[in-house]
Design a protein that fits this description.
globular; 8 helices; Rossmann fold; single chain; 5 strands
């Protein structure tokens, strides 16, 4: 089975996908890390040197490559992945999507000292930009097969979804 975690930056996609992969013995893939390995540049460098349009094109190509090259995995998407190039439809057509819906205040707290977020680092007021970003992306995220809004035990909720799908 192919599982895709989607959501805002700092919603826990990578951390949770890594934990889940160990728990159920499935391959963990981080889309941003795959892009960085292929491009030999950080996401920040790609945004700064080649722009968002180039990044989104590569992101979609790498997403498609991962889907076609692997039979079973849990993938942490980038925060914007579902919102471009029909990626959310591609995700849903090829596996199970899970939206990690985390409150803006929690995202802001998690991102307080992060410097590796190209779309957020350009702005002083992170809360304002996060709200704007969430409003723009929410409709894409809501196309997910499942939504987890409770922050207390996201891992438990994801495992529950996966176990229900397997039975």
């Amino acid at each position: 089975m192919k599982y895709f975690l989607v959501g805002m930056p700092a919603s826990g996609k990578s951390s949770l996908a890594k934990m889940i992969s160990k728990e159920i013995n499935i391959q963990f893939i981080d889309l941003d890390k795959e892009i960085e390995a292929i491009e030999k540049k950080s996401i920040n460098e790609l945004f700064n040197l080649k722009g968002e349009e180039y990044f989104r094109k590569i992101e979609s190509e790498v997403l498609y490559l991962i889907i076609k090259s692997n039979n079973s995995f849990i993938l942490a998407t980038g925060g914007g992945t579902p919102c471009f190039n029909n990626n959310m439809k591609i995700i849903n057509d090829n596996g199970v999507s899970i939206f990690l819906d985390v409150k803006i205040s929690e995202l802001e707290n998690r991102l307080k000292n992060k410097k590796d977020r190209p779309l957020l680092n350009r702005h002083q007021d992170k809360e304002q930009i996060l709200k704007k970003m969430y409003d723009e992306r929410k409709s894409f995220y809501q196309e997910s097969n499942h939504t987890i809004s409770e922050i207390k035990d996201q891992k438990k909720e994801i495992l529950l979804i996966i176990s229900q799908l397997k039975s």
